[in-house]
């Protein structure tokens, strides 16, 4: 999932805080102060000189109306209730007031209402990924604690927080933890301001708390995994012999990326190939998927058949154009009626075969996958939307498709489950339960800046959380997890991960391309 705006027709844009209270988030009033209506003083109900903190949830609506992280129909009210209750119970020295905001206009309205209130600071909770709320709140100059609702707001949180870090925002601290206790301890840092400290003192305190609660580096010794890599020159030569098909609404001129030809084509040809796929062959592929899967959850035989036809159609288009990689604007194509099956399972199958199937028409990540698969003689890259959890010292690579042959087409397989696409609970996608104990390498090649973004991590867990994308490989990063927060605004959300310690060959490939390696951890 890439950077997306607010779902159109968002009910939250029209929801005032009284209507939200009526909608059922009783704990927002009962356990965390009051949901204040426009025109009411925030000071109402203040007792004992408690510092007032407004909690602002940045999200589309209390119950999600459309496809996005965490998923369509997700009910945020119990989550907000748990947060509000936890803050009220564990931070009795503060008075909390809760609000919703879908974007800048609502955020500005909140600031305007607070001008006459003796407010102390803000907690902005990024619940959906791309709602731009914290930027407006930060202009208040008051201390702001920015928190990530993981597998909900993580993309925006990482990108927006990296921008604050780059600009040295003096009043924005952050917490990126799955533990409520870490949030509570960060909130307690508002006491620095209550005792006469500055917003900068508050930010420094949140950083100290975050670092204190992040575990020390664990055992980074990994299972043996010798990787047979091509020489740099042979890799470059084979990359030039590759071809990427980039499928979106309209065809365009051929371009090159890292020496790889990129042919821009419309959905029409892929959709026609899907229609033309042999029904018996499609059923055979679908049945093989069903047989090999550890489980199939919520996906009908008809959906499996159409997904298999999409795989066969994509493979026919690759053959016709002499290409070995395809990336499709899958969500836009499916929601726009340009294609009629998700390509997720087809991408999975192509990657298992040593070809490249890549999500969301992300050409840069696709070229990165071509480079890695070529360099490693068949190991697939895995595009993901990462999440960082400091309390576990983990980066979690999340997406709705992955290979289950991470060591290459001739290597062993790992279990997988067939499930719906997570964000909209439609179609067919895949949860790959990826092998643990191995070193992984995560990169992005950026031709425009002539840079390679690079970090490594030891695969330590597969997170089965039902929110957000289906496959969630958790890794402990090699290096400084704090540094890992700093570059998302420059590089965007996607990363490509490959099994193996590829530091030396990636650095050598970068050098041959004339690229600088940027180590993000």
Briefly characterize the structure.
The chain starts with 16 loop residues before the first helix and ends with a strand. The radius of gyration is 24 Å and the shape is globular. Helix 11 crosses helix 13, helix 12 (279-292) crosses helix 13 (301-321) and helix 13 crosses helix 15 (344-352).
Walk me through what this model shows.
This protein is an alpha/beta fold. The protein has helices at residues 17-23, 26-30, 77-90, 104-114, 134-138, 154-166, 180-187, 191-194, 199-213, 232-241, 267-276, 279-292, 301-321, 330-335, 344-352, 363-375, 488-491, 503-513, and strands at residues 51-58, 94-101, 119-126, 144-148, 172-175, 244-248, 252-257, 260-266, 295-296, 325-328, 356-358, 382-389, 394-399, 416-421, 426-432, 439-446, 451-462, 471-477, 495-499, 516-519. Strands 12-13-18-17-16-19 form a six-stranded antiparallel beta barrel. A five-stranded parallel β-sheet has the order 2-1-3-4-5, with helices on both faces.
List the helices and strands and how they pair.
Layout: H1 17-23, H2 26-30, E1 51-58, H3 77-90, E2 94-101, H4 104-114, E3 119-126, H5 134-138, E4 144-148, H6 154-166, E5 172-175, H7 180-187, H8 191-194, H9 199-213, H10 232-241, E6 244-248, E7 252-257, E8 260-266, H11 267-276, H12 279-292, E9 295-296, H13 301-321, E10 325-328, H14 330-335, H15 344-352, E11 356-358, H16 363-375, E12 382-389, E13 394-399, E14 416-421, E15 426-432, E16 439-446, E17 451-462, E18 471-477, H17 488-491, E19 495-499, H18 503-513, E20 516-519
Parallel strand pairs: 1-2, 1-3, 3-4, 4-5, 6-8, 6-10, 9-14, 10-11, 17-20
Antiparallel strand pairs: 7-8, 12-13, 12-19, 13-18, 14-15, 16-17, 16-19, 17-18
């Amino acid at each position: 999932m890439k950077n997306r705006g607010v779902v159109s027709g968002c009910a939250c844009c029209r929801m005032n805080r009284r209507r939200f209270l009526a909608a059922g988030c009783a704990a927002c009033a009962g356990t965390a102060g009051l949901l204040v209506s426009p025109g009411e003083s925030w000071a109402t109900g203040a007792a004992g000189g408690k510092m007032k903190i407004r909690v602002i949830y940045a999200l589309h609506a209390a119950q999600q109306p459309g496809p996005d992280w965490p998923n369509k129909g997700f009910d945020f009210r119990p989550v907000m209730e748990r947060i509000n209750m936890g803050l009220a119970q564990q931070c009795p020295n503060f008075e909390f007031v809760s609000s919703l905001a879908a974007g800048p206009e609502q955020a500005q309205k909140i600031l305007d209402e607070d001008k006459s209130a003796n407010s102390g600071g803000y907690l902005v909770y990024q619940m959906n990924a791309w709602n731009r709320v914290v930027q407006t709140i930060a202009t208040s100059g008051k201390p702001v604690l920015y928190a990530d609702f993981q597998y909900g707001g993580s993309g925006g949180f990482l990108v927006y927080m990296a921008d604050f870090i780059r600009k040295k925002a003096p009043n924005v601290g952050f917490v990126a933890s799955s533990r409520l206790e870490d949030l509570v301890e960060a909130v307690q840092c508002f006491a620095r301001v209550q005792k006469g400290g500055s917003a900068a003192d508050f930010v420094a305190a949140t950083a100290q708390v975050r670092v204190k609660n992040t575990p020390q580096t664990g055992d980074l010794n990994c299972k043996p995994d010798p990787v047979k890599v091509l020489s740099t020159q042979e890799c470059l030569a084979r990359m030039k012999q590759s071809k990427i098909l980039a499928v979106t609404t309209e065809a365009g001129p051929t371009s090159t990326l890292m020496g790889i030809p990129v042919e821009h084509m419309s959905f029409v040809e892929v959709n026609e190939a899907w229609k033309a796929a042999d029904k018996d062959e499609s059923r055979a592929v679908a049945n093989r998927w069903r047989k090999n899967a550890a489980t199939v959850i919520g996906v009908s035989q008809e959906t499996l058949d159409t997904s298999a036809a999409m795989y066969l159609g994509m493979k026919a288009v690759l053959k016709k154009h002499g290409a070995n990689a395809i990336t499709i604007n899958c969500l836009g194509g499916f929601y726009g009626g340009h294609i009629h099956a998700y390509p997720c399972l087809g991408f999975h199958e192509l990657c298992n075969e040593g070809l490249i199937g890549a999500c969301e028409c992300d050409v840069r990540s696709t070229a990165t996958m071509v480079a890695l698969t070529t360099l490693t003689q068949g190991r697939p890259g895995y595009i993901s939307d990462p999440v960082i959890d400091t309390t576990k010292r983990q980066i979690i690579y999340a997406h709705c498709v992955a290979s289950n042959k991470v060591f290459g087409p001739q290597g062993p397989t790992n279990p997988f489950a067939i499930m719906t696409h997570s964000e909209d609970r439609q179609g067919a996608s895949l949860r790959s339960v990826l092998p643990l104990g191995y070193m992984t390498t995560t990169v992005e090649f950026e031709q425009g800046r002539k840079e390679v973004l690079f970090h490594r991590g030891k695969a330590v867990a597969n997170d089965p959380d039902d929110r957000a994308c289906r496959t969630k490989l958790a890794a402990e990063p090699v290096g400084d997890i704090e540094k890992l927060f700093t570059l998302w605004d420059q590089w965007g959300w996607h990363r490509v991960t490959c099994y193996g310690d590829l530091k030396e060959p990636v650095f050598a490939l970068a050098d041959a391309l004339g690229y600088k390696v940027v180590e993000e951890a």
